[in-house]
Design a protein that fits this description.
The protein has about 325 residues and is α/β, with parallel strands linked by helices. It has helices spanning about 45-60, 80-85, 105-110, 125-135, 140-150, 170-180, 205-215, 280-285, 290-300, 310-315, 320-325; strands spanning about 15-20, 65-70, 95-100, 115-120, 155-165, 185-190, 220, 230-235, 240-245, 260, 265-270, 280. The chain is built from 11 helices and 12 strands. Strand 8 (about 230-235) and strand 9 form a beta hairpin.
Length: about 325
């Protein structure tokens, strides 16, 4: 059992590692419209530093790692890092979340070097709307990336869809149609507030609304979820694909949260929506021991709140933008 237990008795087994704050898309709900100030290369953790801190996390009970960004595939030689993380004792799952723009030519290599699970972010099946969301014309590249991931055996492939009322909520059933004959789990994510992302409560297309829309065409059957899962999972009767809902805004899952985050510049965040963090980069560069790193990790875990505050408080807090934290 994990040694990383917070003040509320939650055991942490899942680490999300951002390898870069840079991205080749500009999704408005993730990146402030005015952009952000990119971290200098010297401010980012090196791959060797990431491996070291991940090994310490694994010794403390972390068994699942997810590589995120920014867009992780824009960082050079990422395959090398994934290969090394997959070799760390106690790490059973190495996953990644990507926008798939660069995935087509990398899917096979990623699979071969130890990546065991893959999530792809795609918020519209309409090319023009995709461009409006991302501010880039890369829709065809993303679809090619999805096809490549399926071809090399990522199954079930997970498709992340941030659903926004009045913007792409009319595509919920279209996405279920898309995965109905494919080994894909489409995951609808309620629109969440982050720094300067123009969130409003009126933009939240709720879990209940999504289920109602899908229910007009498909019959959903609840599935058992793994401990600590953030999504509510459902089979689609008569279909290959499955559907899930991440209900951060309308039905919080904070009570069972088992995840921690490591930002690209070396800060441990115990909660996505809580500003507190503990930076380990400078300590590693100053020669601290692994035992001291373990102590810093434990101190970060103890900062974790019982749950995130109301959305309006999240917006008012001085937290980082989503792209700076890691997806």
């Amino acid at each position: 059992m994990s040694e990383l237990v917070d003040r509320f008795g939650r055991h942490h087994t899942y680490l999300r590692i951002s390898v870069t704050d840079r991205c080749n898309l500009r999704c408005f709900y993730c990146m402030p419209q005015e952009g952000i100030e990119w971290k200098k290369k010297s401010e980012l953790l090196t791959f060797e530093e990431i491996l070291r801190i991940t090994s310490v996390f694994a010794d403390l009970g972390i068994s699942k790692v997810r590589i995120t960004g920014g867009e992780p595939l824009v960082r050079r030689n990422l395959e090398w890092l994934i290969d090394r993380i997959a070799r760390i004792d106690n790490i059973a799952v190495v996953a990644m979340t990507t926008n798939a723009v660069l995935l087509k030519d990398k899917a096979r290599t990623l699979r071969d070097c130890g990546l065991t699970a893959l999530n792809i972010s795609l918020d519209s099946l309409k090319k023009e709307r995709f461009e409006a969301i991302t501010r880039r014309d890369d829709f065809d590249n993303v679809i090619a990336g999805i096809e490549a991931a399926l071809a090399v055996g990522f199954s079930p492939l997970k498709l992340n869809v941030v659903t926004i009322a009045g913007f792409n909520d009319d595509e919920v059933v279209d996405f279920v149609d898309y995965v109905s004959d494919k080994p894909i789990n489409v995951r609808f994510i309620e629109y969440m507030p982050f720094k300067d992302n123009n969130w409003s409560r009126g933009g939240v297309f709720s879990y209940a609304q999504m289920v109602a829309a899908i229910g007009k065409k498909y019959q959903l059957r609840p599935l058992d979820s793994e401990p600590g899962a953030v999504a509510k999972d459902f089979a689609i009767e008569g279909c290959t694909g499955t559907v899930s809902f991440v209900t951060s805004m309308t039905d919080s899952f904070c009570d069972s949260c088992n995840r921690l985050r490591l930002t690209a510049d070396g800060s441990i965040k115990s909660c996505l929506f809580y500003p507190a963090e503990v930076n380990v980069r400078d300590d590693m560069r100053q020669g601290v021991t692994d035992a001291m790193l373990a102590g810093l990790i434990r101190s970060a875990v103890l900062l974790k709140p019982a749950g995130h505050p109301p959305a309006e408080e999240i917006l008012a807090s001085e937290n980082r933008a989503m792209i700076e934290i890691g997806g």
